[in-house]
Design a protein that fits this description.
The chain is an alpha/beta fold. The chain has 28 helices and 25 strands.
Amino acid sequence: MADRDGAPTPNPNPNKPERPPLLKKSKTITDKAPASPSSSHFPAVRRVSPTPPSFPRFSSESHTYSAATSTSTSTSNDANFGFGDRDYVYPSFLGPHTVRSRVNVKSTSKSQRNPLQLSKLPAGSESMPSNLSCEEGGAKVESKMKPNTKPKLKAEKDLNALSIQVSNPALSGSTSAISSNARRASGNSYSWILFLLKFVCTLSVSHTLYLRNEVSKLQKENISLRRVCSHVDLASAGVMELEEVNTLVYFGNADSRTVALYMVVFILVIPFVLYKYLDYLPRIIDLLKRKCTKKEEVPLKKRIAYMVDVCFSVYPYAKLLALLFATLFLIGYGGLALYAVGDGSFTEAIWLSWSFVADSGNHADMVGAGPRIVSVLISSGGMLIFAMMLGLVSDAISEKVDSLRKGKSEVIESNHILVLGWSDKLGSLLKQLAIANKSIGGGVVVVLAERDKEEMEMDIAKLEFNFMGTSVICRSGSPLILADLKKVSVSKARAIIVLASDENADQSDARALRVVLSLTGVREGLRGHVVVEMSDLDNEPLVKLVGGELIETVVAHDVIGRLMIQCALQPGLAQIWEDILGFENAEFYIKRWPQLDGVPFEDVLVSFPEAIPCGVKVATDGGKIIINPDDRYVLKEGDEVLVIAEDDDTYAPGLLPEVNKGLFPRITDPPKYPERILFCGWRRDIDDMIMVLEALLAPGSELWMCNEVPEKDRERKLTEGGLDISGLENIKLVHHVGNAVIRRHLEGLPLETFDSILILADESVEDSIVHSDSRSLATLLLIRDIQSKRLPNKDARSIPLRHSVFSQSSWIREMQQASNRSIIISEILDSRTRNLVSVSRISDYVLSNELVSMALAMVAEDKQINRVLEELFAEEGNELCIKSAEFYLYDQEEICFYDIMRRGRQRQEIVIGYRIAAAERAVINPAGKSEQRKWSLDDVFVVISSGD
């Protein structure tokens, strides 16, 4: 070696031959610390000279390196040639100097290596490659050093450690490449381990089969030796033949067990092979078919997983079948494995496998390593299958319980009443249906709504009503879905009631229309009729057009509006309507009586001791119902009689009683006088109510309207509703803008001058029952309080007897006195508010929801009753009236009720009940109609009048 001046340096160790350096002008890394930051462990990161160095050729046998010599010459070599260790440690494509060519490392064979020289290499030379060729500008230099693998690996570790200390950012790419190579090396080592395990398993199985064959050969040789050494006689010949037969059987068993062992291994390996190479199967098929598909396809594994997922989702018994298949496979595979490693027959092995699957403790008696291992594996699989079976059974039971709890199970009923929807009217509707079914021992009512089954049952239980044998079944679902309708046996129901929702009128009617469309789409058809509760009268024709003859509509808002007007003009009519519409007292029934064919209606009227005939259903006129027909009408074959009775099985025609008309006053109805009526609040169908008042009131009447709607908007809304304001002849509209729950707004009205005051459920709060009833009750109390202070006090003796219970309360007494002057009709939506109004007895109220529920229940029981109610509620035709007793009798006259009915026929009226002066309620369809009794002129009679 040479120093900086070029002179040779003596060898510090003369016993060792000196080896020339691999690179003449290079710098090696020493163990000494650098003198300055510039002289770091990696001085080769900077390039001194761009010119390529020249490399002299050295023979591999001339000299060797020493650590001291390489250290002393490193600085001069780097300075002269500008080539550092980095030039051969890092390839050019990893470093910042991309101009340099790559360094190709060529390894030589092991026979050419000198182990003595490799063991004595200095520390700095361990990082050098064995054969390095550098190509740059056409020059090629090769170094023929041959280090062994150990120094190379050590150099790589040192190199990885040193690469962290380099501050040049250009080396970051090489660092990531090295880490990637390290991960790849770890993955390769893992794959080698797997390969080694597979090899060991295959080798052990092959060795086992080899040993079994050797044992078979030795047994065969043993038998041959015994045959040679034994004496040949008959006995021994027989023994030998027997042994030969047993040996053949054994060899046959040995061969079959070998085949079974091969099958066990093959079946065990096949799933792993398929799992790993399954995605390549389509490509192999394409290659065999010589097809080239360039389009991207979904891997076969994903397609199979998707098919399994769909199968488990669509078919409910797929999980059970999969579990059954897994059990059978485990029994068969386990039996095959036991047969391969055991000594028994195949059937015995199958039985043992089943016993291990069924009871995991049976494998404790097994003897031998192989049978014990197989039995433990089979028992483990059996425990897994048993756990899966428990999970499936538990899930099935939980799903069934949830289905029952949430109301998803099917209703197997017929001839039941089906209620679609949920509203506040449902409670009173169920009560009326239960009362109607009382005579037949109860019925079945099914409710289908978009609510949870438990919530519906809890709300129904809160009614605290005895359903008298009627069972109410709740199901959760949508009436718009045919599957949910079929779930409640819609085709077998004798009546279907569609309740209006709690939305606004248009949305509620639109939903009812969709429900009707769903009902018409039932393939099996409908056995019963459909009763639809509508919210707006204008939407009724569309629903009837879609539903046809099966649809009966009840416009709740219109019915209540007209009923309020009738009750305002005739005090006490609300209670009578409650008795007629509900099933608790008397109601309408239509039935045919053949024994009455050919009998005139005047005789039919007094032919029923327990009922009151009101009309006739004419068979020849398409089933038209005539209410209050002429006395001379004779019943024909097929005609039916409309009556008011307690129940449909409580009346029948009897013998004609003796009736004496006698003399009675011939008083005509008094003329109508103009009236002043006040509307507090704004209703959606207020235009229809004004038209009804126009038809019922006398000319010169006034209608005052107090609400928060501006006057200009009122006229516009009334005109849009079809009301011709300029064409009103009998009434005059008087507008007053104000809030009916504010006292100063009400004090601006002449409340003491009104004949009737109607407190309407305002349109702005009609969706909230509690809020609406609160406003109505507050308006009622304010009006009565203002009236009591403006009207003159009356003598306490003039207070009726029914009000004497409140004589100790001054404000109640004053309100009762004021109530004798004017009639107040309150539209109450909640039955709980009814008690507050009825206790105070300061208003003749109307319970909207309960009356509508009664009408729905009556039409559900018999759809023909809907035509009767439509005529009685209309402004034209027959109507329900309250008439004074002076029209039918003299004071203190003693006659029977049949006589009064005969006298009423002289006025083209049908008397259906009466109310005694001292009584609080009217009696409809009284019992004992032929009994004589005294009557007073203070009594009133309830009649059906033609309204002329």
